[in-house]
Amino acid sequence: MLEIAIVGGGVSGLALADALHQAGKSFALYEARSRLGGRVLTKTSALTGGAIDLGPTLFWPETQPHMRALVEKLGLAHFPQHDSCSILQLSDPNQPPESLDVVGVHGGAHRLKGGMNALVTALANRLPADSLHLEHALTSIENHGDFVRLQFKTANGLTTVSARKVVLAMPPRLIAEHVSFNPVLSAELVEAMRATHTWMADQAKAVTAFDQAFWRAAGHSGNAFSNHPQSVLAEIFDACDESGEQAALGGFVALAAESREAYRRSMPVLVESQLTLIFGKQAQDGELHYQDWSAETYTCASLDVAPLTALPVYGDQHLRQSWWGGKLMLSGAETASHAGGYLEGALESAARLKRVLISSSTSLFNSDNDTSLQRLKHWVDEQRQQAEAHYRNNLNHMLSNQYKSQVTQRALLGTVEHIYEEALRQIEQLPFNIQDVTIEQGRLALTPAVLNAFAGFNKEIVEAAIEFNRGSCAISNFPQEQVIDEEYLNVIQRDLSAAWRDFALSVNDVLLAK
After folding, report:
1. Architecture, CATH, for domain 1-40+116-193+310-358
2. pTM of the model
């Protein structure tokens, strides 16, 4: 019988499949589409031959360790996103665009040579061809005690697969909407699925290729914003290759999902018109590539079509737990506690499942728990020294991406979650021996001692951030950030407490897997 079934051939599912394959585990991956990649979609321009990313295109090597490590492991070439020169804003279609007094937009972002699909292709090429099954849409899962039975809809009708465990590496809302479970899932899990917005599912992206990057020659970065009521593209960016010879401009569509269908046929004219208003007549007669993700059955759930009123929150603990006695697990960017929705979050979730599914018994170390605890404490002490610098980096990233509120809260949470993720890697590698350690109600007696190495960490980083903010010129225009009041501090502390609880559960899971 198959050991592990992975449902979903996006980056998270592929990364987990690669980890299982390298560990010699029996697995198979099932994808509903006729292609791998999920929300990663790269086309080739007939005009320039350049890669056209219609899904995610950017990653941040300095603040996304999983992406950085994977890109390096796969040997993929990458280059900085073009971000220099003037940034334009169109507030009135009857007036010329104005130049914004902003330096850069994308905060150290990089792009892959050949488009983001290069990552998908490289991962897929590491896997056995017979382990990948396309055009398999999951319809139901049944719990049969010591295994699960999955039913898929294929071009040849329904087919069933049995496996010891299943990982659903797909958006939670799609699971809740399209997959039936026997027995039914808990109400708390179903509610968490339905409440979790599928990142970018309601969005549409337009990329236009040109025979030359005329905006660069005119002294523009390619970055532009349009905020008037008739805007078609809300945000525009340079989408050229590293040399700038395969020229393109990309943009995110401003129209709401429910409005776009009415403008589908006229979209090429509307996009061209807006690019012309901002960059001039040379923006005419480009080659448009357009992707409306809200029209994708395997991306957008019914609940995703409604416009967001606030940034989505990811990493609900119900989505990160194992169900059905450890036989049912969820993966994917929406389950990540760090960088939720991003490719980094997709890889974080794959790393979490790797820790659960692959034993850590192959450690190279051979020492007792006291020594491991000392090594961990030494590592944590090093992180205490570096935490403020990491916070500053996160804060600068938020400001360069024009976040207007809660930048301290976001930067602190990102710092803490990043260090916790790195800590889990350390704990996984250290040779803790749990053979004679007691377990009560699922909690290992060793877990509190491990967590004690982090005592006071959150308090220290908050105090350091508050002190830094007081003297920072970068946030002098944000008085609520420069001087943190009690109410804001309580919000920050609640966020960090939630991250700590999630980390503590993950530590226990990692130790139990040894």
Report:
1. 3-Layer(bba) Sandwich (3.50)
2. 0.74
